[in-house]
Amino acid sequence: MDWGMKNRLAQIIKGDGKCMFLPIDHGYFQGPTRMLEKPGETIAPLIEFADALFVTRGVLRSCIDTRNTPPIILRVSGGSSVIGQALENETITTSIEECLRLNVQAVGMSIFVGSDYEFQSLSNLGKLVNECERYGIPVMAVTAVGKELEKRDARYLGLCCRIAAEIGAKVVKTYWCEDFDKVVDGCPVPVVMAGGPKCETELDAFNFVHDGMSKGAIGLNLGRNIWQHQYPVPMMKALRAIVHDDASVADAREIFETEKSK
Prior knowledge:
globular
């Protein structure tokens, strides 16, 4: 691995080998998602606790302060909307020149294994990796499942993650599931956990995050469970403690309650 690739990875994955990414890319297929109508305002109190920001080029340019931002992971896939026929019908929407122009530390795109667009999305990942390897930019593959959430079990996600790694992704973002260690053990590159649907309570989030970290994940890529929460900063701090400080669920809950009362 060349120096540039290693340096970019070191900016998004901290010295302890862990990471906490803050995704605000949801609008690329959902439009003005609740609490993300004005992305810059939503993340203003959270950004200092994020190791990297997962964002599209449009929101990056229009909403993110160039002087106060963590490393950027740029969302480079899209092409379908939540009201369209198939979320899985995506393409690469952003050129490598744009990624360099925006000085991003990594790029991310979705793959849809098992869908009608499996070949298309995996081919797109291969092409993206080819381009990014040329310029030393890490690729994060997102194991998306479209609207078919029932697919999220260890066997399916393990398959998705391994394929993404085999094609060349440097990091894989996937959903937590039961037997999550089976997913991580079969993936030769670091795995970060996605949030998926918003959890009913903060304890639900603490539990799955702690379980996933104990089973080999290196960190998180959570959005709605943080910025749609009534107390987003306490949530961010509590989850960060699980990731970076090996906090227990009880510790995280105490941090949350303490921060909430301030």
